[in-house]
Amino acid sequence: MTMRPWREVAIPHEDVLKGKFQQAEFAADLSRVHDGTATKEYLDPALFYARTYITEGMEILLGSVAERIAGKGGDPVIQLQTAFGGGKTHTLLAVYHMAQGSVPTSDLAGISPILDKAGIYDLPKARCVVLDGTKMAPGIPKKRGSTEVRTLWGELAWQLGGEEGYAQVRAADLDGTSPGKEVLANLLEAYAPCIILIDELVAYIRQLEAGKSYPGGTFESNLSFIQALTESLKAVPNAVLLASLPESALEAGGERGAKALAALEHYFGRVQALWKPVATEEAFEIVRRRLFSTISDTAARDAVCRAYADQYIQHSGIFPPETQESRYYDRLVAAYPIHPELFDRLYEDWASLENFQRTRGVLKLMAKMIHRLWQDGNNDTLIMPGSVPLYDGATRNELLYYLPQGWDPVVERDMDGNTAETAMIENKDPRFGSIHACRRVARTIFIGSAPDTGSRTSRGIRHDQVLLGAIQPGQQIGIFSDALKRLTERLHHLNEGNSRFWFDTRPNLRREMEDRKRRFDEKHDILPRIKTELAKQVKSEIAGGIHIFTPGSDIPDDTVIRLVVLPPDAPYGRHQLRSAEWCAADLLKKRGEQPRQRQNRLIFLAADGDTKDRLLEQVRSWAAWESIVDDYEKDIITLDNIMGRTAKEQRDSAKNIFERLIRETYRWLMVPGLEMANGKPSSQVTWEKFQLDSGKTIKAEIDRIIRENEIVIERWSPIFLSGILKQWYWRADTPAISAQKVWHDSCCYLYLPRLKDEQVYSAAITAGARSREYFGTAEGVEGEKYRGFVFGDENARITVDSALLLIEPEEAARYEEATRPPVVPGMEGTSPSGWGTSPAGSGGATGSGWSGRGSGVRDPGGSPTGTPPVQKKRRFIGRVELDPINAKTNFSDIVDELIQHFTVKTGVRVKITIDIEAEAEAGFDEDLQRTVRENSSALRFKEAEFE
């Protein structure tokens, strides 16, 4: 069966539809009914009972009163004590109309079954006395004909018997003293059957200040009267007293009210029967009867309720546990067309507010809300928390009346209305807008969280309660969960903590965070945080130097492989004004104002153009949350425990997201190269891009990509070195080339292989020198002779220095053959003392002769030259004094211009020692000494002492 909207099944009463109801009409006034001046719905007994739902407690109470009037038992004293607005006065009116007998009991809906159950077939008419504590004034006598009635007991006697009845208590009334229980018993017996209805008794007695006398008596005399009255009623079998008392001292009003309530509870407690007329479940029917006509299409009602119940059972893990009980369907039927969740929030949460009357307050609110929904053509299947029209001024004002100041702008800005943030979100996202998901979620949270009295252990409502108050059958649950998430990100007054959600008049932490985000400068606050995190994540076993956001002038122009991390404002991506390629090309060409020579030692890591803005925004969020937590811990700002804990959780979450975004953003490895045209390199730099897997660490990905794509060569075969030499260096007129030049060129030119370091290059030369396929080597050339010639020596140990030559293999073979020494007859296989022979391919020419294994050198003719070997320098020591003001710059220059010449050489051990002396005539203060000692320890100084 298709679900029909509530407006087609439950039609509101005419006064609700037309909006003609008055707030006063919802407030039952016992005195006005007794005087005949009340509105028709309260004054007419039949109409009153037609709109009154007789609750279980009221049924028992009416039965007891009927029995008492008929002299068949029943309780002589009944106290009605419920929360503010809990139906006390309404119950007194029900008793009044039943007892005073102005219409037959058969015309009073629901009364006949009560009388039948009590065995009463003809209920006697009773005299009705109404004592209204808010109408009577203890300091002002009441004029009754020619008589002035001063006290409660005087008014009681007058209403029972007029002048004749008053005569029995005249003396007590004039002097303000209680008449005593015997006098009262005689009075009641004379005019029985009778009922005495006392409403707002505490409001009357709290006006009597202790120790003072009033025309209406004293505080003590009035309490004595109540005691005597309750005792006297036991002696009169067909007289009954019903009195309403507030439920709490807070409702009693002030210190005297609390004192009066305590005393009255004591006296009533001796003889009373205590009734609590309205249970929460019964309130459903009370409100429904007052606001809606009788529902005739029960099948349509049941179909809607079944759809809701089935939805809750089908999604058992999403909705609250109580919805899984079979009785929840019965609750839906009982509350129709209002969702039980709306009743629960109003009766449990809003009724906890000081001024909110449970039944009366709900009736007033629902009447205004239903009128507006009807006028707007609302087609919800049930009236839910998500249906509450907060955009309507009358409904909103009715709700905000009970709340502290400051809620009106919160509702208008964050919750409901054409200019609210919820409406703006829905206008931009049709998924939300088509079902008003954001507005329904916001209304539900407001209804469930705004009445915060501090009595709850946890503030706000849970996620499952939000969904319960917002979703109708057939709607996608995920949309509402997404809407809730979107609202927590956008709304300024919506808070989240302990998996609960609530609105507050104070801007939430997110608003505070958004405000603080604007305080942080990108250059001084944001980029340093990104740089610090990149320093933790960007590592490499291959790159010898990592430079993060480093100016070109500070990136050394040496032979070390250096990974340059570009700043976020130079990302890789489309439509970037300052692209990564532009920035990297500038760093590649220049070192500050000087041209960069060793361009082939740089590779680059760039941010993704589509992600970098998210990264910058996330850093701001993290910095803002961190500043909030810092201020909270330093007591600079005040937060409650939940907000403080939430701020810390948000800080940690923002930091975790930032660390993840670093990996997602810095994921482009850029490698420079040169285009080749007709076998020659062009001047146009090309960029090869490799995307890192953001699911893995940056370090692992950088090294993996470099190795898999041979961006940097860690092991080089001599065959490739030979190919490079043949392609670029050996010519007919230059069969030998300096090994140092080839190494230097490989560091400079982007079309040559990029070797990890000189050791890789040296290893390739050593391996190639042991074969006759690739090249020969020599330690230099003198004239037409090669010094230290090596070609195909399996034991060759080659040192790559400025003198080493790499010789084209055919040239090496020719030279070897030309310099082979002649064989002396009889000397084969022997060597004269002091001279040696060179095996084929293992000897080497030096100058005009060939090199032997001894200390001399013999020319092809065999004559000794007698030239002693050159003694090489083995140690360097340098000392320099630096200007302490410019020490950082000076030391950087020393490293670049001096130390690196040693460190790039294989087999050179370099030791650097720093001596620091500082003197102060006035001595060093303790703070400075402590700082220096701590920093010296962190920097691993072997010695750092003051004297």
Low-pLDDT windows of residues: 829-868
CATH topology call of the largest domain = Rossmann fold
Shape: elongated
Q: What composes the largest sheet?
A: 5 strands, parallel
Number of helices: 38
Count all strands and give the number: 25
What's the CATH architecture name of the largest domain? 3-Layer(aba) Sandwich
Helix content: 40-55%
CATH homologous superfamily of the largest domain, by name? P-loop containing nucleotide triphosphate hydrolases
Tally of domains: 5
Report mean pLDDT, rounded to a whole number. 85
| CATH top level assignment of the largest domain | Alpha Beta
What is the CA-based Rg, rounded?
50 Å
Strand content: 5-15%
Oligomeric state of the chains present here:
single chain
The secondary-structure class comes to: alpha/beta
Instruction: Kindly report the spatial arrangement of strands forming the biggest sheet.
Output: 2-5-6-1-7
Distance separating the two termini? 96 Å
Topology:
Blueprint lengths: L13 H5 L11 H6 L4 H4 L1 H6 L5 H14 L7 E6 L5 H13 L10 H8 L8 E6 L9 E3 L2 E3 L2 H16 L2 H6 L5 H10 L3 E6 L1 H5 L13 H15 L5 E8 L2 H4 L1 H16 L3 E3 L4 H12 L6 H17 L12 H9 L4 H10 L8 H18 L17 H8 L6 H9 L5 H8 L1 H4 L3 H13 L11 E2 H8 L6 H14 L3 E4 L2 E4 L5 H9 L4 H16 L7 E4 L13 E4 L14 H10 E2 L2 E2 L6 E6 L4 H22 L7 H25 E12 L2 E12 L6 H11 L9 H11 L7 E3 H10 L9 H12 L6 E3 L1 E3 L2 E3 L17 E3 L1 H10 L25 E3 L2 E3 L5 E2 L28 H17 L22 H13 L9
Parallel strand pairs: 1-6, 1-7, 2-5, 5-6, 11-12, 12-15
Antiparallel strand pairs: 3-4, 8-10, 9-10, 13-14, 15-16, 16-17, 18-22, 19-22, 20-21, 23-24, 24-25
